[in-house]
């Protein structure tokens, strides 16, 4: 049995079914990230694990012990809140040591733990300050430090970086990754930010409307989404989804007519039979602009230059709009006629019920 | 140029306010230095400090000072302690919370005179008061509260009147307390008592300061309750400074001495305010 197991967890609010049967196993030391659209139940799930919300049914086991009925303090979890939730009338030191003091730990042990935590988070010089005399990033570090000194079995983070500015967010993200490496403690992390999810996570849990849509490593989710929802949710800009107009079976390859052009797909990579009304998914980074003889063609409606790359918003000959990643300094102009090549290894096929029916091309999985 | 115009435009209101304050004050100062008794019209000779001397050496003076201190202090303690406790209790949702809140606030809207009459005739009356009934049903002799414990009775009435104010301020303050802080404390292993002690009380320190300052100002001049219920008696046992001044001016018709008393009260109030602000005011600046 794994370290943290969540079994058929349900949560009903007065008139809202927020968690609809969550099953999840987490191994010790894993960094798990919950992502999903706003209101899908990420915070609710995290707070139910923490014990701040009572579950309607289902079980949570941690380290061989059933914790779903225990009080939050008894679960041996520590949580870092989005608003930091520092105690405003206490100094940094008092904030850090609050839990230990309540537990009546010996003073020498308290001092030692506070010292270790404050050194590793560079809070040494701030110990006598009150929270309101700290910057956002420093407050965040105190909140993390408060969790660390308790040496919990699992850390819970609810969008801990969302109140920080972009530069600080990157810095704190690295710091969290370092911390996870150093402590080796299991962490569960809720975020809106895909970059955080992809860079921090050992495994990502994608939630949708109170249910788990897919669990997997960041790369698995990127390369082998199970559904249209995951395919669209992971990756910026979004994956292009183009309805397939016609399918011709040509032995070991399928010839696909899409978006007023043509491409092909190896039959060996199909998980099940393909029917009409299927959709082809291809990420902007797997499309290439070419001078002539492309799989698709269209004209550029708008080009966005991001410095390191550019995105061309193209209207295909059948009026469908797609996004194509282009070189940083491409000289493409709005309204220009373009040809597009599809990297057939990266094509994903979805059936008419929005499930993915293709597999990744084997040779490119882990190169 | 612009400044002159602004000043000119502000002048009428400033002048009115100034006169509003200066005229009564200077008249009081003037009265306090002359012999001015309504029983001896025509006699308005200058007497210097005599009125002050007369007021301070009055045997009631020290009693009145003591009573005022006791009254203000007790009511402050009662309203703050009970106010914090009650507002913490009604902060959590429960059935009928809205009605309970309204009931808790309502004494504030009762006029002081009515308040005193209600307590005097319906609660504390030794024959048909509710307390008398309770005492009787317990087999005890009913107590004549107003004559046995006059100052205590006044303290009860005034506390009853001012408790709602404290509750009103504290309930509002509690609503602004951060919910996630309490949850964080809960996860840190804090019990409800710990949360109350280490988060709620510090959070309320500023509202408590405000309540103490505002109440102190009004409690120094409590009058109606005393006038309606005990008339400052028996003896001087429930006479405070405000009632003593009234006593001088309108029962003994000695306007001169009453004015002197009024000025002494002003000075005393300022001393209290000074120490109060020194002691608790620093809470307000941060
Ligand atoms: N106390 C509550 N009472 C009723 N419904 C609630 C309550 N708290 C949350 N919900 C509902 O439960 C759903 C999930 O809420 P939750 O806060 O878990 O979303 P989330 O995934 O964390 O969203 P976000 O990314 O915006 O933080 C939402 O639709 C919300 O309206
Ligand atoms: Mg949330």
UniProtKB/TrEMBL annotation, chain A:
EC numbers: 3.6.3.19
Lineage: superkingdom: Bacteria
SMART domains in the cross-refs: AAA
Keyword Hydrolase: yes
Molecular function, one GO term: ABC-type maltose transporter activity
Keyword annotations: ATP-binding, Hydrolase, Nucleotide-binding, Sugar transport, Transport
GO cellular component, one term: maltose transport complex
EC primary class: hydrolase
Ranges for domain ABC transporter: 4-234
Record-linked Pfam families: ABC_tran (PF00005), TOBE_2 (PF08402)
NCBIfam families found in the cross-reference section: PRK11650.1 (NF008653)
Name of the protein described by the UniProt record: Maltose/maltodextrin import ATP-binding protein MalK
Organism: Marinomonas spartinae
Gene: malK_5
UniProtKB/TrEMBL annotation, chain B:
Annotated ranges, domain ABC transmembrane type-1: 65-276
InterPro entries linked to this entry: MetI-like (IPR000515), MetI-like_sf (IPR035906)
Major subcellular location class: membrane
Pfam families found in the cross-reference section: BPD_transp_1
Subcellular compartments: Cell membrane
Keyword Transmembrane helix: yes
Membrane topology value: Multi-pass membrane protein
UniProt entry keywords in alphabetical sequence: Cell membrane, Membrane, Transmembrane, Transmembrane helix, Transport
Similarity comment: Belongs to the binding-protein-dependent transport system permease family.
Protein name (Swiss-Prot/TrEMBL): Trehalose transport system permease protein SugA
Species classification: Bacteria, Pseudomonadati, Pseudomonadota, Gammaproteobacteria, Oceanospirillales
